Amino acid sequence: MIDYGKVARAVEAGGSPTIVVFGDYCLDKYLYTDPANDELSVETGLVAYQFDRKALFAGVGGTITNNLRALEANVRCVGMLGRDGEGFELRQALEQVGADPSYMVETPGRCTYTYTKPMRKNPDGSYSEMNRLDFRSMEPLPPELEDALVARLEQALEGADAVIVTDQFVEPGLGALTDRVREAVCNLALEHPDIVFYADSRAFVEKYRNLVVKCNDHELLRVFDPAHEDSPTRELVEQYGQQLTQLTGRPAYVTLGAAGSMLFAQGQPPVAAPAFQVEGPIDIVGAGDATNAGIVLGLCLGLAPQEAAALGNCVSSITIQQIGRTGTATRQQVAQRLRTRA
């Protein structure tokens, strides 16, 4: 049984651990347009959308960073940004939440990864997302950038309590986490047993060794049973979750959406951490990153792995109630919700 009161007390009394967020970062750029302002282009005869405001956020690793800062952790950011306007805006977004982007690697010749999201106003005043415009470098990461990323990570480890590896992209070699960088991260985890190393990977979770890992149930099946077309059953999740922790040599977390999450550890039965039920509309964008922040904060505060799972579920339950934005949760909000389960 999970002692939610204990988790709440740890959140309230805990210090401010230093956590390195390493890997893929992007800029989330929201652009807002009203159909009433559409114009017809004289040159092309096509509709020219008139955008009158924008909102900028650090995404992917930046979303984890935002959540950790809201939870009062110190954050060192290690990733890539281009020598372009989006790179300036990404660095500025990280600084604005109080994170340290001085370890970021500037990459001339490669663009800052950017998700541009045009938002079109509806008759009721709400906005709907149009086709997203992505900016990404589609060439494999060169060895000199791999070396630079690993070197910055090594520098950022001094005095750190934990590292969260954010492995976002499914195409091999295009993001910060190439096979060579993953291998270096696994070696660093072995060399620094006093630091919590934790990886969240969409497509390569099975390649991590010596790290606590996290994926969702669909990602787990894509690793061990890619031909499976139906929704993951509890039996399959338990079977493959055990295989995953045997591969990595460390505990593994598998999230199950509205069903919460499961913790797997070698030689132990799986442990379920139920979700926190919420009412009303929800927006699940960023829920996984919020879970990551909660789990790793919990481990840094000395909670048991299953208690950290409960903390991760609690943080994400608060963020998904923030509609139209990638939400965050404060320690006060988290402790209050935990006490409803105590």
Automatic annotation (TrEMBL):
GO terms for cellular component: cytosol. It comes from the Bacteria. GO terms for molecular function: heptose 7-phosphate kinase activity; heptose-1-phosphate adenylyltransferase activity. InterPro entries: PfkB_dom, Ribokinase-like. SUPFAM superfamilies: Ribokinase-like. Residues 19-326 form the Carbohydrate kinase PfkB domain. This is Carbohydrate kinase PfkB domain-containing protein.
